Amino acid sequence: MILTAIIFALCAAPATALPRVMSLNLCADPYLMAFADKAQIVALTPLSRDASLSAYAAQAQDFPVSDGQIEAIIALKPELIIVSSWSDPMRNALIERLGFRLLMLDAAQNFAAAREEILTLGTAIGRAAQARAYLDKLDAALAALPKLTTAPKLLPLQRRNLTVGQGHILDDIMSRAGVINLGRAAQADGQNAMRRVSLESALAAQADFILLNETDDMPDSRGMEFITHPALKTAYPAAQRVHINNNLLVCAGASTPRAVAALINQLSSTAANQASNQVGEPSASSQ
C-alpha cells in the first residue's frame, strides 16, 4: 500500500519547473513568444509592443511587459533575465549582485549568429527541443522563398549619407535574397559595416535599385536631406526604389525570413511590371 502511494506520488509529481524568464532584450522577445512556455514568461520589453521596432508587436499584446527597473525586477522575481551586449554594464552588475541570473544575447547581425542564440536561449529556459523546432521552421521558411532569375545590383542608402557593407544585417538579407550589395564596393578590410557615401558616388554607382528603410512620407529631418535630394530622386525614381521596414532590421533571426521575402517580392514584382511594359511598347519595326 505504501509502495503504491509512493509510485503514485512520483508519477503525479510535475516535471522540473521551467525558470521564470524576464526579457530586457528586444531581440529575445519574439523567441520567447515562439517557443517558451507562456506561463514562464514574467515580462517582455515594452518595445515588444512598438510596431515601428518589432514585427511581432501584435503578438506581444498578449504578454506582460516591464520597464526593467530594479524595483520591477525585485517585485517580479524572475529566475533568468535576458540582457544584451548593449545593456548598461553597471546595471547588469547590480542585477547580478541582487542574486538574479543573467543571460546575454547580442543583437545578431546575420542569421547564422541568430541560429546559435536561438539554441542557447532554448537550452537556458529549458525548452531546447522547442527552440530546435522553431529554428527548423525559420530554416524551412527561408528555403521555401522563390529565387530571383537575375542578381540585381542594389545600393542600400540610409539617412545621413550612410550605406552598409558586409557585417550589417541588411547585407545578410541582401545576400540571402540573391542580390548584389554595392555598399560593399568601397568597404576596406576590417572597415565598419556602415560608412558614409557622397551623393556623387551614389549617383555614379549605376545601381539597378536603391534599398531604403525609410520612405519620403516619413517625418523629414536634416538627416533625410540625402534621401530626398532631387538629384537622387531623378536618378532613382520610384520604380528603382525598394524598401524594407525598420522593424525587420533590429536584429537577425525571427524577422529574417520576412525581410528576405519582402525584398524578393518587391524585386520580382518590379521585374514583372517592367517586362509587362516592354511587351506593351511598340517595336521599332512596327513604327
Notes on the protein architecture:
- With 287 residues, this protein is of the alpha/beta class.
- The protein contains 11 helices and 10 strands.
- It has helices at 2-12, 29-35, 57-60, 70-76, 89-97, 111-124, 128-143, 169-177, 199-204, 230-235, 256-280, and strands at residues 21-23, 41-43, 80-84, 102-105, 153-157, 162-164, 180-181, 194-196, 209-212, 241-243.
- The strands form 3 sheets. It has a 4-stranded parallel sheet with strand order 2-1-3-4, with helices on both faces. A 4-stranded parallel sheet has the order 7-5-9-10, covered by helices on one side.
- Helix 5 links the parallel strand 3 (80-84) and strand 4 (102-105).
- The longest helix has 25 residues, at 256-280.
- It is elongated.
